[in-house]
Write a structure and sequence with these properties.
alpha/beta, 7-stranded mixed beta sheet, 12 strands, single chain, 26 helices
Length: 728
């Protein structure tokens, strides 16, 4: 089912207070799981080595002051009151900001964007358009003219994305390890050393297996301790990234009324206890569990472990979502995406990424074995994502909200200076663990950029080697070969023109299908495409050629259909196009060459008054409801019977009826998917860097990740792949 489409097609109504409070309650585990477990390790990481706890308690009160103002300025002021407003039709996260900028400044990394995409309901631009001559228009023009700036913007978004993936490795490790660290107060140091890491690893394996179903001075020590204080805001980005599952108001209510005061009280309670207990006779030193009464320490330990698991699971699921977005926008290789819920949209599972994260998480846990170095690594990942969000938000304020550039400068200067301070304190810990997110992000960034670069070069090759429409017209309606019954779906990334693979078939095969459809399944820079706007359908050549182009458009958060539903919707969309086109389609050769008109057609479930397909012996009356219908029946055959249920009015002319009959016959005969299996090679004279990227990097990713047939849910039994060499 088109789950997200059904959800988005429902009428939008204002949430009741009961709904808002329910969403706010649900967000406590999903959105704030990571943020709420930070008291487990903030004080321990802060006082690890850089500063010490003196009898005057100045350090404790200084750290508490920093924690209070950091929680107030970053999660509360920046995210709750500002960043949450920059949603992309209800969706949040790094790519939501990038998507907004792509639509308002035409800097999209997607090569096959069309003007028709700007007519989508969710493509609507907020605010008034800027007038020529002002600074906003000049900034927009500068971004659109210079490819280098567009690449820098993409790299900035990818860096933020890579750090989120790195956070998906580090957050489960530090959260679970910190929760388990409470065991050391109940056993000797020697026994604890051999128990803590194995227990943490077992919990982490269990966690990933379940996925399927201010200081008193400004001296150097105080500055370096900011890396530990930074951990109090880990998970703040989740408020924005998980916005699509809840709502702005519900997240604001949950944080301001529950999470924020609870965290402040938790940190104040720890600080109060530590200020009265200076001589703690334990190697554990300062930490969360020393402030817990011994009688309830074991129940608290169990609750902490469960909270760490819930918070980590939310981070892992968020990593899946952002990788799906990257893949949809051509910035990550194809992966297997499993939808784990038929009721809640966006609940996905990616096996390859899940097990990769698990291995990396276990490696970090076993390799570091202490909270300090894990905290250094997690802190750098978190603050980098926040810096990227601040940079992108400053552009959104100007280009999307059309506010004063002075306001954007104030935003980036105020929050950027705070985050830069924490960033420098984290970066100085490079050798003490901060190298891990840098290394992970560098690897993922290379993978993303190589795949994106190769995808662009492949599309450019397809565009440059398109077949002329004049060549097609010269062949005549039969295309110079025998046209046999059936539908041939030729998959292509092109949104106009004839792909080179088609000429290869026509010149080398003695027969081809009666109906040919050039199918393009593409992503657009919006989170969702409504079912009623899913397809763009048009003709390629005159009517008697029976050549059609169908463009299926999906948002970066949409659920793509399975093959059976996709086939039905494709046939219905073409039939509806034929019916709605009417007798007006009578163009000359010159019009065919210069113009390819496309019509917006919805899915069969959204187009209630359109043509419906009834296969086998389905109950037509049940499908039709109360509408007055008539049937166009195809001749009886042994194979399954296909019928089009057509509205009685408007009347369909004779040519359209005949065309619909041929389409039914072709559907009964079967449908075949024809895809090009590309082998890309750098052309002669290319630089060494390009040869390495294309011949080695892109080719390695193409061979070791999912094939297009699998990623697009195309059945192998009806797929024909044709090998083609691309010299780019």
């Amino acid at each position: 089912m088109d789950l997200e489409g059904e959800i988005r097609s429902q009428p939008i109504k204002k949430d009741s207070w009961k709904t808002l409070l329910t969403l706010a309650y649900q967000s406590l585990g999903v959105v704030y799981g990571d943020l709420s477990t930070s008291p487990l390790y903030v004080y321990k990481s802060t006082f690890a080595e850089d500063i010490t706890h003196s009898d005057t308690n100045e350090e404790i009160y200084g750290v508490l002051s920093f924690v209070f103002w950091t929680l107030t300025l970053v999660p509360l002021l920046k995210y709750v009151f500002i960043v949450l407003r920059a949603d992309d039709n209800g969706e949040g996260g790094t790519f939501a900001l990038y998507s907004l900028l792509c639509r308002h400044a035409r800097v999209s990394a997607l090569p096959n964007c069309q003007l028709a995409d700007e007519e989508l309901s969710e493509y609507t631009k907020d605010g008034a358009e800027s007038h020529d001559g002002n600074i906003v228009w000049r900034l927009k023009s500068t971004l659109e003219k210079h490819k280098v700036l567009q690449r820098l913007l993409l790299v900035l978004a990818l860096i933020g994305t890579c750090m989120v993936i790195g956070d998906g490795v580090l957050t489960p490790a530090i959260s679970v390890f910190s929760a388990v660290s409470g065991l050391e107060l109940s056993m000797s140091k020697e026994h604890h050393r051999y128990v803590e890491v194995p227990v943490a690893c077992i919990i982490l394996v269990f966690l990933f297996a379940l996925q399927h179903y201010g200081t008193h001075r400004t001296q150097r020590g105080g500055w370096m301790s900011l890396g530990g204080i930074l951990l109090c805001i880990t998970g703040s980005e989740a408020m924005f990234a998980d916005l699509g599952h809840f709502s702005q108001l519900s997240i604001k209510i949950a944080f301001t009324c529950m999470v924020y005061p609870s965290l402040i009280l938790a940190y104040m309670g720890q600080a109060a206890y530590l200020s009265k207990h200076h001589a703690i006779e334990s190697h554990y030193r300062i930490g969360f569990y020393v402030s817990v009464p011994e009688k309830i320490r074991w129940p608290v330990l169990g609750i902490a472990i469960l909270a760490a698991v819930v918070g980590s699971q939310a981070i892992i699921t968020g990593t899946f979502s952002i990788i799906k977005q990257c893949s949809a926008l051509g910035c990550f290789p194809r992966v297997k995406i499993v939808h784990t819920s038929s009721k809640i949209h966006g609940q996905i599972y990616i096996p390859e990424i899940n097990w990769t994260l698990m291995l990396l998480c276990l490696a970090v846990t076993i390799g570091f074995r202490d909270t300090k170095r894990m905290g250094n690594a997690a802190g750098l990942a978190v603050i980098t994502v926040m810096l990227v969000t601040t940079c992108l938000m400053s552009l959104v304020i100007v280009l999307c909200w059309h506010r004063s550039i002075f306001l954007a400068i104030c935003f980036i200067f105020f929050f950027g200076s705070i985050e830069a301070l924490y960033f420098s304190a984290s970066l100085i810990k490079f050798r003490e663990g901060a190298w891990v997110p840098i290394a992970l992000s560098f690897i993922f960034l290379i993978v993303m950029y190589v795949w994106h670069y190769g995808t662009l070069k492949k599309y450019e090759f397809d565009v440059q080697n398109k077949v002329s429409i004049n060549w097609l017209l010269s062949l005549g309606p039969s295309l110079g070969i025998v046209r046999v019954k059936g539908i041939g779906l030729i998959h292509t990334e092109l949104v106009s023109g004839i792909p080179a693979i088609f000429s290869h078939f026509v010149t080398n095969l003695p027969a081809f299908h009666q109906v040919v459809v050039f199918l393009c399944i593409k992503s657009v820079p919006v989170p969702h495409v409504r079912p009623g706007e899913r397809f763009l359908v048009g003709r390629v050549g005159p009517r008697e050629y029976r050549l059609y182009r169908c463009i299926a458009r999906y948002g970066y958060r949409d659920v793509q259909k399975d093959e059976n539903e996709l086939e039905t919707d494709l046939v219905c969309s073409i039939a509806e196009f034929i019916r709605s086109e009417g007798p007006a389609y009578d163009v000359g050769t010159e019009d065919v060459v210069n113009d390819e008109k496309m019509t917006v057609v919805g899915t069969s479930s959204s187009n209630v008054e359109g043509i419906r397909v009834c296969e086998d012996d389905g109950n037509v009356g049940e499908m039709a409801g109360t509408s007055e219908l008539r049937e166009i029946n195809s001749p009886k055959r042994v194979r399954k019977r296909v019928r089009f249920v057509v509205p009685k009015s408007p009347q369909i002319d004779v040519d359209a009826r005949e065309e619909l009959r041929e389409l039914m016959d072709a559907r009964e005969a079967g449908m075949a998917f024809i895809m090009g299996h590309s082998y890309m090679r750098a052309k002669k004279g290319s630089s060494l860097t390009k040869k390495v990227v294309i011949n080695l990097g892109y080719d390695f990713l193409r061979r070791n990740f999912r094939e297009p047939t699998f990623a697009l849910n195309i059945p192998y039994a009806s797929t024909l792949e044709v090998g083609m060499v691309y010299h780019v």
